[in-house]
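Before the break, one more example. Copy the sequence into your notebook; we will annotate it together after we see the structure.
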Amino acid sequence: MLEKQRQQLILEILHEKQFVSVSDLSPRLGASEATIRRDLSKMAERGELNKIHGGAEVIKGQSANYRRPYIKGSVFLADKEKKVLNKRLIAQKAVELCEDGEAIIINGGSSTFMMGEFLVDRNLNILTNSFVLAHLLMENSSNQITLPGGEIYRKQGIILSSFENDTIQHYHGSKMFMGTPGISHAGVMESDPLLIRAEQKLRKQADKLIVLADSSKIGQRSNFIFSPLSDVDVLITDNLADAATLREIEASGVEVVVVDVPSDDSDSSEPQAD
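Here is what the structure looks like once it is written out:
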């Protein structure tokens, strides 16, 4: 991750929480604590935050003038650097489920973004609300790409529409692929009601729902549920997932596909780029 990108993410997180600690930012952004401290010093010199012992805080009165997305969700640039090998293998398996000429829907997220690498040599009709994935495929593939209308949420890397009638209702896909912050016997989790509303609009246009979730997401729960397990057709995860939870999910009628992650690399989030 570039220094400029990392510092922008620090600002996003800071204005969401009002205070951030070096120890919290380091694993979240995939950078050493020394690197985070240098970032905070530079940003404090530019008047972007107040550096305090162990972290930083918002400058008084600045938060009200800070324009930021009003939905909760993972910071895309940071999240896509977690569990990279796991996500890459899961994404590869997801693309193997697609046939050339097929129409599919891909919901935005760090896990589904990884599908882009394996879609570049395919010939599919793809509706996605991920502008970063759309850009990747438009530049590097012959896939037909459709984007919904709406507002760009840079932090999450997606486009969301507040209108009931947009391009989505004119599209039909055989499969919808989506990631999730968690999946358990309670269902597929999501972090914000606005995201749920947008994703449910996409889900209505697809025959099957395929969820991509690395082992860290298995068994995780949140305050918001996107859908019950009865609406999920396939879950793709990795061999480090909790076996008991996978059996519960499978017992609900979900086809569980498990990819093998080499044990030496399973805990690696990413070669850390400062």
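The CA atoms of residues 49 and 59 lie 5 Å apart. Confidence is low (pLDDT under 50) at residues 266-274. Try to locate both features in your own notes.
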